[in-house]
Write a structure and sequence with these properties.
about 0% strand; about 75% helix; mainly alpha; Growth Hormone, Chain: A
Length: about 400
């Protein structure tokens, strides 16, 4: 298969970073239990992760085609390998901040490179949509693995045992580095402008287009929802459902698995059904889950729970919201990237990453504040507002894309 080794490398890199990035919810829980910080203090880890993503993407996205996507990804994998070992030896809330800051910087380079390369190894909107959805699906599988990987090393009575997972994560990063190093990239990326200043200005020129403005607002709203739920679901399981710490973390994997299934499935059905109707129906169903299923989850009475099998079935219901919010991000990203020439994919991806990071930080901080001030049983109800705004944005985005195509 053409470009198979490149695609495998993209999958591997995204898989490793999925585990690292989305362990933030687990580390937030561990920070509260091990390092003596409260919910609002712990939520700053999301900012240490997302703000570097936004800053690096903003300043370097347009420059990466000149550096080369392969070099950018190799630098990223090297940095996170070192950061994982630093977390093991640092074993403090400060070390956790440094870890996620490094992961944020590295992921900015990875995501811009991966999203830009999708356009280089695919032909046509359908193939672009399919690879985008499958890569994002693999990302969600990585998240699900994280929720089982960390409890595997988390031994009750040994407060520092969970840190051993970072040796494995460092080894995975090094393995991905070596696979990428020996992968041959035949096609050179197109340079956005004539010089570095023009490269950078392309990002600002994109922000003058209505299509891009509507999209970045939509991406911001979605990531606010996804990261708000994903980051705080382990804490929700711990504080509301009263699950043991390890079970709380593993339980959160249900959301990640649903997100993975939803994204992979979306890549198939959008070949037959217009993306507008797929996203509209999915968002309405997600809102229905929050309105009708979440209250039942909050009010369940649980007895002694030691494993996932001990949890009542209704306890698994709310994380299934992941099935319905899953297609939103990759489909919106694919719609916009497919509508742009290949030379603008890198600066456009920079905008995607910047506003996604800002949305993730704000979403996590808002949910963290709501956990503390409104109670963990009420926090997730506030996701209905951005969901409603997203629903409106789909129709605006569809109207703009159709108008641009004419």
């Amino acid at each position: 298969m053409k470009n198979l080794s490149i695609k495998i490398s993209l999958y591997l890199n995204y898989f490793v970073f999925a585990i690292l990035l989305n362990s933030v919810g687990i580390v937030i829980l561990k920070s509260q239990n091990n390092y003596g910080v409260d919910e609002v203090q712990a939520s700053v880890l999301e900012a240490f992760k997302d703000l570097p993503i936004a800053i690096v993407s903003f300043f370097l996205a347009s420059f990466l085609p000149r550096l080369g996507y392969k070099k950018a990804m190799l630098i990223s994998l090297f940095l996170v390998s070192v950061a994982c070992l630093s977390m093991y030896y640092g074993n403090s809330f400060t070390a956790a901040k440094i870890l996620f800051a490094t992961v944020g910087v590295s992921f900015a380079l990875i995501k811009v490179s991966v999203y830009s390369m999708i356009g280089m190894v695919t032909q046509g909107e359908k193939e672009h949509n399919s690879l985008m959805s499958s890569i994002e699906g693999v990302f969600m599988i990585g998240i699900a693995v994280a929720y089982f990987l960390f409890p595997l090393f988390n031994i009750e009575g040994k407060s520092n045992s969970w840190l051993n997972v970072y040796w494995l994560l460092a080894a995975m990063s090094i393995a991905s580095f070596l696979f990428l190093f020996f992968t041959n990239f035949e096609k050179e990326p197109e340079i956005p402008g004539a010089n570095l200043q023009e490269d950078f200005s392309q990002m600002f020129k994109l922000l003058t287009k209505l299509l891009i403005i509507v999209f970045v607002i939509s991406a911001f709203l979605f990531v606010m929802i996804e990261q708000g739920i994903m980051t705080w679901l382990p804490s929700f399981n711990d504080k509301v459902l009263k699950l043991p710490e390890n079970v709380s973390i593993m339980m959160a994997s249900v959301l990640a698995i649903c997100l993975a299934i939803g994204r992979i499935f979306a890549g198939v059905i959008t070949q037959k059904i217009n993306w507008l109707w797929v996203l509209s129906i999915c968002t309405i169903l997600a809102m229905a889950m929050v309105v009708f299923i979440l209250p039942k989850t909050v009010n369940i009475n649980v007895g002694a729970i030691n494993t996932l099998a001990d949890i009542p079935l209704i306890g698994f219901a709310f994380p299934i919201v992941g099935l319905f919010i899953a297609p939103i991000y990759p489909l919106l990203s694919s719609v916009v990237l497919s509508a742009l020439p290949e030379r603008l994919h890198s600066p456009m991806t920079g905008l995607i990453v910047v506003f996604s990071a800002l949305g993730g930080t704000l979403g996590s901080r808002i949910i963290g504040w709501l956990f503390k001030n409104e109670g963990p049983e009420n926090a997730f109800y506030y996701t209905l507002l951005p969901m409603g705004l997203l629903l409106i944005s789909y129709f605006i985005l569809r109207k703009v894309t159709v108008k641009n195509a004419l």
